[in-house]
Amino acid sequence: xxxxxxxxxxxxxxxxxxxxxxxxxxxxxxxxxxxxxxxxxxxxxxxxxxxxxxxxxxxxxxxxxxxxxxxxxxxxxxxxxxxxxxxxxxxxxxxxxxxxxxxxxxxxxxxxxxxxxxxxxxxxxxxxxxxxxxxxxxxxxxxxxxxxxxxxxxxxxxxxxxxxxxxxxxxxxxxxxxxxxxxxxxxxxxxxxxxxxxxxxxxxxxxxxxxxxxxxxxxxxxxxxxxxxxxxxxxxxxxxxxxxxxxxxxxxxxxxxxxxxxxxxxxxxxxxxxxxxxxxxxxxxxxxxx
Length: 290
Prior knowledge:
Shape: globular
Number of helices: 13
Oligomer: single chain
Helix content: over 70%
Largest sheet: none
C-alpha cells in the first residue's frame, strides 16, 4: 500500500471519530469504565472476525508482549479519560480540548527521524491552544470551576492519544492485526477496573444500547484498524493535521442533534482549533514538497 493510500485509509478513522462525542453522550448514564468494556468488546470481536477471515491471526504469536502492553494502555488510557471528561464537562467544550491531539501529533512527530517542524506548525499550535484556552475560560459565560476536572481529563486525553500515535510510528513492522488484542485486552482491563471503582449502571434505553453498539463498530472499532495503517505507513504529519476536520464535524454534530448550544465562544474556539490545523497542514504539505 502506498504512502498516499495509507494516509487516506487513516483518515477514515478521523471521520468515524467525529461521531465519538455524539455517541458517548447518547450512551449515558453508562459509567466510563463500563462503557469502555462494552465498546471494546464489540470492537475486538470485529477484529477477531476480520483476522479469522483473512488468516492474519497467525501473526499474533510473533508480536512481542511489550507491544501488546503499549497498545492496550494507549487505548484504555485514552478512552477512559475521554469518556470521563464528557461525563464531567460539557460535551462540545471537552471534546474540542480532547481534539488537540492532532496538533500534538504534528508537534511530537518532529522528534521522529526524517520529520521536521516548520513555522506554520508552531503557529498552528498557538492557535489551537488559544482555542482550548477560550473554552476553559468559558467565553461570555465565564469560568466554571465545576468543569475544570473534565477539561483536565480532556487535555490528558489529548496528550495520551498523540503520544500513542507518534510512538506507534516507531513500530511500523508490527502487524495491524495486533490491534485486535489491544481492543480485547482493553475490554478486560476496563471491566476489572469497573468492578473495583464504579457502580454498575447498565444502559436502560434502546438509544443508549444503540449508541454503545455504534461506538463499538465505528469510533471504538473499525477506526483503530484504519488509524494503525495510517500512522505506520502514511504521512503522519499530514494525517495529524487533517484530523482537525474531526473537532469541527464533532461540534457541528452535537449542535445539530441538540447536545450542545450554539454560541459565539464555542464557534470562535472551533475556528481557532480548526484554523490552527489548516496552517499546520499547509506547513506539512510544503515540507513534503521540499
